[in-house]
Design a protein that fits this description.
The protein is α/β, with parallel strands linked by helices. The protein has two domains: 104 residues, 434 Repressor (Amino-terminal Domain); 175 residues, 2-Layer Sandwich (Endonuclease, Chain A), CATH 3.30.870. The chain has twelve helices and six strands. Strands 3-2-1-4-5-6 form a six-stranded mixed beta sheet, sandwiched between helices. Strand 4 and strand 5 form a beta hairpin. Helix 10 runs antiparallel to helix 12. It is globular, with a radius of gyration of 20 Å. It starts with a helix and ends in a 6-residue tail after the last helix. InterPro entries: Cro/C1-type_HTH, DUF5753, Lambda_DNA-bd_dom_sf. This is Helix-turn-helix protein. Pfam families: DUF5753, HTH_31. It comes from Saccharothrix texasensis.
Length: 297
Amino acid sequence: MAAKVTKTNDDAIAQRRQVGAAMRSYRKEAGMDREVTAAVIGLAGPTLTRKESGDVQFSRAQIEKLAEAYGVPDNEVAMLIELAREGRARTRSRSGEFPMFVPLKDRAFLELEQRDAIEIMTVTLLVIPVYFQTEAYMRTLWKRNGELTSEQRINELVRLRKTRQRVVTKPAAPKIRAVVHEAALRLPVGGPEVMREQLSALARACELPNVEIQVQATEAGAFPGIETTFTLLRFGDGAAKDVAQVAGYDEPFYRDREPGTQVYRDAWDRRRVAALDLQESKDRILEAAADFGLSRA
């Protein structure tokens, strides 16, 4: 019975954390400071901070009142309330960073990534991990994705991705660990000039103290989780609170409780062990860059 209670509480914390992260993101986007916002719902600033951190849950009335102050669309308010309701059920048993076109679950994930994660683990197959992509590389990906994405939309996506990349070098940055398949190093996205710049940037990222990049070598053939790409956020309060973002065809889906997240922890371990070590990986990145015409001297 005790194990069930602990599991239930873990699920509730995961849900509260996502609601709080989304609410914090909306507040920042609205340009409202903590004290002003807390006064809207009759709280002290530290209490609002605890709610935005997921330590204390938001009530439905508080969500509705703050959402009105922030200008949150009705459909996203409904999703917030549903997410908060799920958290309550389980318990009983910088300004403008993430724009309004980002769906609720994505918004919560991005806020947690920027503010709360102590470790980020990501696996990619055919593309360079988002944390290390150059602007020219990412623009090529969106222009050539077959969806006829408008220039305005691409500009929005570039700004958003650059915001995400701040996590790599921010003060007290989390550990960022990536496993990328060698195919991503060899695929000529944007042509030789774009790839030289991209691979050079990736090699420099290998030198950052909080970054570990491993390459899955082509000659190794098949490997564990060959069809899966994902990003796993880890926090300071145990594996049961992890959040996984898993790549889908049109949009990602999320796993925010065990045993769903355990699958990705296991997948990460298998991929890491099967990949080249850190120095071999950097050498392979520089080798690929040289093949696109970058001198290794």
